[in-house]
Amino acid sequence: MRELPSKESALFKQILAKTLAMKGLFLNHMDKKEDAREFVRKGLRSDLKSHICWHVYGLLHRSDKNYGEALKCYTQALKIDKDNMQILQDYSLLQIQMRNYEAFNESRHHLLQLRPNNQRYWLGLAISYHLLENYETAERVLKIYEGTLKPGQTNYEHSEMLLYHNLIIDESGNTEAALEHLESIKDNVCDRRIWKEKRAQFLLKLNRLQEAEAAYEELINDNPDCYGYCEGLQIAKGINTSMCDNSIDDLTPECEEKIIDLYKDLAQKYPKSNAIKLFPLLYTTGDNFKMFVDEYTQAALRKGVPSLFVNLKKLYGDPQKEAIIEQLVEGYRECLKNNSTFTQPKNDDYVKEPPTAYLWTLYLLSQHYDNKRDTTKALMLIDEAIEHTPTLVELYMTKGRILKHGGNLNEAMKVMNEARELDLQDRFINSKCSKYMLRNDQTEEAEQTIGLFTRGDAPDPLTDLADMQCMWFVLEEGESYIRQKKWGKALKRFHQIEKHFSDITDDQFDFHTYCLRKVTIRAYLRHISTNKQSVNKIYIELYDNPNKVTIIEENEDYANMTEGEKKKLRSKANKAAHKKQKEDEERKAKEDVKKKVDKPQDDDPDGEKLLKTEDPLGEAFKFLLPLQELSPKRIETHLLGFEIYLRKKKYLLALRALLRAYNIDKENATLHNDIIRFHLAGNNHHYLQL
How many CB atoms lie within 10 A of CB 201? Predict the structure, then answer.
């Protein structure tokens, strides 16, 4: 056989390498991972200098979420073809995905140099400097780009870019310049609401209170139910209180009078605004508070507002206000029962309240006493309300909640199911009932109930919930399986939740390019700047008790058996398992022949493969890392870290976890118990003695 000349031979190898790499990429998309890697490696062996092969190899690593290796492959590809636009774009996406801002900035510089006429590359470079907090350079990049634009009709994308420019100036700390810039772009901004909000905020920062007051009055006129606008107006008028913590300890009588006068005027202008009616309740005390809350509560009870307690609950941080509310509403109940009025009538000529007022008063009081955990009184009141109007769904839901708080989960579930049956078309009540069933460990009933609102063409309810990324149900079901000690099924559910978050993380790749293309920069930056604990507990349990996966937990007499009896029972169970597996395989084969549509098959429905892990602590550690990264301010994160590090005998890391937990909540009871455990562990290791 004749050999090709050297030039043609090299060309053939290049074509062969590219062909093998592309086949590997196709196989990867067909979910044939091992075959895909093998073909890509063959391609690289055929031509190590092929940037396409290295690029494809990086794409394979990226699809496996092995971002570090993917970066190495992209780097190697760029050494061969440093100006390849596609590789550079993928390279920069991976850098921003890993929040490597400095490298992202370098890639964006390179892309802009290659394509200076592309809008996305100018914005990408500005964002890279912004993320590095180099506001001056970021603003300069945007100014240069804006100078190249031709004046024309205002559009949304141009408007968003200008607002982003203003955001950079604001974050640099130059509020005066930010306000000037905001005024200059007024005619080109499509989002008028955000323009007005930013202007009012800037005026307030600059202490230009008279102008800020007028700005917030205009905003309130646009939306009188916005709490932020009301608070801004308060500050502009010199009434500087904190709405967030409801702290009124330092509130002077003069300040309180100013608040009363302000909201009386606003209430006359905007009589339908609920926020304006609620605000005085936050910042008044004594007789003033009693007057306002009396007026507010009577109006809501007369109208029949189911969310009244939710609105009043924010006041319960003050025991005096809670006592006043209880006194008033108990008075309403007595007067409505005897006279059909909220207060005792002074003469015979009085107007009666509607019969529903008594019903909603009972409803409010039952929630009030439930909040105080006076379950007996709360149940008495809600039962009276149900007797008064037995067809109102909210009453049954509240009774179920009271029973749940009282610890009677079985009765709570039954009552919530009664509520569901009163309105079978309500998805919310159906979901609440399903949740109560899971809390009562009735998993099969919960799946059937939630399945009433899943797609009819779905193979089963759980498959449809997984497709919709409905995590609350899967999380609750996993917790239920933990209580039932069905560890495999619990792990199955929690791994499913982990997959949802993994999918969401992977979807960011599309988000990076989409936001640059659509110029939704402000939303993009909020995303860039912004539950795995139960699965860790299971793996820790498996590490501490490895035999639990083989024990037949349904057999209550197992602990009392002899070793010989246990051996026979295990053998019998294994034979039964093999027989069941064979029957399942035969049934599956028959179903495959009969079925006309593809149905996703789960080869491990009970999570048995997950239970058979040889390194439970290693699996637990995989789930700990994202918790440490995303939830470092939660004490549970560090307490779980301590459990893992202590078992791995990594004592310095265990100590660090304890110190971080101590800085978050030094009074935590579990933390104190863990400190003692750490001290006892230290007795066996002299180098831990302090």
Answer: 20
Residues 6+ apart with CB under 8 A from 414: none
Dig out the tokens for 526 from the structure. Answer: 């909020």
Using CA atoms, how far residue 125 sits from 130, 138, 164, 556, in Å, is 9, 8, 13, 66
CB distance 251 to 283 below 8 Å:
yes
- List all residues 6 or more positions away from 661 whose beta carbon is below 8 Å from its beta carbon: 635, 638, 639, 642, 668, 671, 674
Global pTM exceeds 0.85: no
Q: What token pair was written down for 181?
A: 């810039």
Amino acid in position 1: M
**What is the mean pLDDT of each successive set of 10 residues along the chain, which is 690 residues long?**
55 69 84 86 84 89 85 91 91 87 92 89 91 92 84 75 92 94 91 94 94 95 92 87 48 82 91 90 89 94 94 91 95 91 77 91 96 95 95 95 95 96 93 95 92 84 84 89 86 82 77 79 73 56 56 45 61 62 62 49 67 73 73 84 86 90 89 87 55
**What are the phi and psi torsion angles at 630 (to 5°)?**
-100, -25
Q: Which of 611, 606, 494 is nearest to 548 (CA)?
A: 611
3-class DSSP string for 112-177: HHHCCCCHHHHHHHHHHHHHCCCHHHHHHHHHHHHHCCCCCCCCHHHHHHHHHHHHHHHHCCCHHH
* Residue in the structure block whose two tokens are 């301010």: 633
Radius of gyration of the chain (CA): 33
Residue partners of 527: CB distance under 8 A and separation at least 6: 508, 511
Q: Are the C-beta atoms of residues 329 and 361 closer than 8 Å to each other?
A: yes
Task: Enumerate residues 6+ apart whose C-beta is below 8 A from 92.
Answer: 104, 107, 108, 111, 124
CB 429 within 8 A of CB 397: yes
* Confidence at residue 291, expressed as pLDDT on a 0 to 100 scale: 92
The answer to whether the CB of 277 falls within 8 A of the CB of 296 is: yes
Residue 406's φ and ψ, nearest 5 degrees, are -80, -5
Residue among 97, 175, 160, 156 at smallest CA distance from 131: 97
Neighbours of 364 (CB within 10 A): 23
The pair of structure tokens assigned to 340 is 């059909």
Q: Which domains does the chain have, with CATH numbers?
A: 6-137 (1.25.40.10)
pLDDT of residue 20: 83
Token pair of 188 as six digits: 């080109």
SS3 state of residue 293: helix
Least Cα distance to 666 among 674, 321, 370 occurs for 674
Give the closest residue to 168 by CA, choosing from 212, 133, 117, 121: 133
**Element (DSSP H or E) covering residue 508:** helix 487-518
What pLDDT does residue 201 have? 95
* Count helices and strands in the chain by DSSP H and E runs: 35, 0
